[in-house]
Amino acid sequence: MTPEALIRDHSIYSCVMGSRAFGLATEGSDTDRRGVYVAPTPLYWRFEKPPTHVEGPADEQFSWELERFCELALRANPNVLECLHSPLVEHIDDTGRELLALRDAFLSRMAHETFVRYARGQRRKLDADVRQHGVPRWKHAMHLLRLLGTCRDLLRTGRLVLDVGDGRERLLAVKRGEVPWPEVESWMSRLADEADMAATRTPLPAGPDRARVEDFLIRTRRVSAFQGQHVGRP
Fold first, then answer.
1. Which of 26, 105, 198, 223 would staple 209 via disulfide (CB 3.0–4.6 Å)?
2. For the chain, where are the alpha helices, taking DSSP H only?
3. Mean per-residue pLDDT for 86-103?
């Protein structure tokens, strides 16, 4: 089975991510699509296993196989967790709805480490740009601020909300280079400190609910293997 056929016939969930999901889209913004597909169980009986992810077939499109997606989400991968909470869902079937119903099972205090670790890596790249070119990549600075704010609010509330709401105009000003870099640096540091503080009193559990997720994965594989149902096919 080709990668294109997996996406076409076995996708259970697809959404729009990036600036459009964050409420930061402007004229000319790309449309980044992310999704989840379920490779039919019989494909795993072969020596050559189905792919864990597929790029395309459209531009700016990327999809994960369900098991890989769940593995990453259980590890609190920021990109994958945010995919589960996109306000812009383009396709979903019954299995996809089951997956979204498990969103809280993936959330845990591990998000503090993974989000902040990712943010630190992005911050090092920005600092390197400043050293080399005198200015940062302002778009990347905007998205780093957005990520840190999302992490702080997740730890404070236990809810992952992507849309920046009232913060849109200030963040877009950063993207346009209208906010001095020292002010942006201070803002980043403050958000990181606030996330650290929120982590000490967060309502999130210590770890994800792996048992619930595994039960869902096993049931989905069983449906595909023994009931003759083409999971993800309309």
1. 105
2. 3-10, 19-22, 66-74, 78-84, 94-101, 103-106, 110-133, 138-157, 168-175, 181-199, 210-226
3. 97
Tokens of 3: 């990668």
Q: Which of 140, 143, 138, 194 is nearest to 164 (CA)?
A: 143
pLDDT bucket at 163, cuts 50 / 70 / 90: very high
Residue 204 CB burial class (10 angstroms; 0-12, 13-18, ≥19): buried
What Rg do the C-alpha atoms of the chain give, in angstroms?
19
Query: Measured between alpha carbons, how far is residue 82 from residues 89, 195, 203 in Å?
Result: 12, 17, 19
Residue 115's Cβ-count burial label (10 Å; 0-12, 13-18, 19+) is buried
| pTM for this predicted structure | 0.91
Is the CB of residue 15 less than 8 Å from the CB of residue 21? yes
